[in-house]
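YM 10:42: Probable transposase sequence, as discussed on the call
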Amino acid sequence: MAAPLRIQLTPEEDRLLLELSLDPRTHKKTRLWAMMVRLAAEGWTAPKIAQHFHKDRTTVYLVLRRFVREGLQGLAYRKPPGAPRKFTPEMAAFVEERLAEDRVWTAPQLAAALAERFGVRLAPKVVARHLRAMGYVWRRTRYVPLGSPRRKR
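YM 10:58: structure's back
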């Protein structure tokens, strides 16, 4: 059985953790984690802290280990990384090249061209969203005569 985690706080760390746990502008998970560390420093065990906050004890162990390893910076909430983006800068350059051509492109046509070139299927709405982010605006497609009619004299 592993030894229990012993947390020793300096008075300055305890004051900072108290401020973090009471500040309403601090992310709610950071406030919770600060309270967990303070209770562990007061001698509470991880299972008792977990029961008090209705969390799993492994969560408490993870928070306490991260605090021991990284200090106060380890308590800052970090957004999970998520999936990598499908629309890459190379695709943006490809779309720019296509839009520079002398023809009209619709979002479904661009989505099909991207799927053919890069093998990545994107919904037309996703392509339209990226086009707006790139500074392009949607305009209705319409038929335009080839040139102005010439008058015969």
